[in-house]
Amino acid sequence: MQSSKSFSFNFQKIPNRYASIVLPFFLSIIMTFIVSCISTLRSMGFEQFSFATWMSAWGISWLIAFPVLLLVLPIVRKMTMLLVRPI
What we know:
Elements lengths: L18 H26 L6 H33 L4
Helix pairs in contact: 1-2
C-alpha cells in the first residue's frame, strides 16, 4: 500500500476570519484576468492584441471588481440560501 503525501507549502496560514476577504480577492483576480483577456481580444483582434493593453484593462477591471465583490458577496450568499436547502 502506497502512502499518499499531500502537497503543501511551508508558510504560516492566515486566520479563518480573513476568508471573507481572501475568497473575493482570488475570485476577482481570476475572473477579471479571463474576462479582460476576452474583451481585449474581441475589441482589438488577434493581430492587434498586446499584452500591455490586456494588463492595463485587467488592472482597471480588478480595481473595480474587488471592492464590488466585497460589497455584493454577502447579499449573494443570502440570496443563495433562499434557493438551496440547508444540509
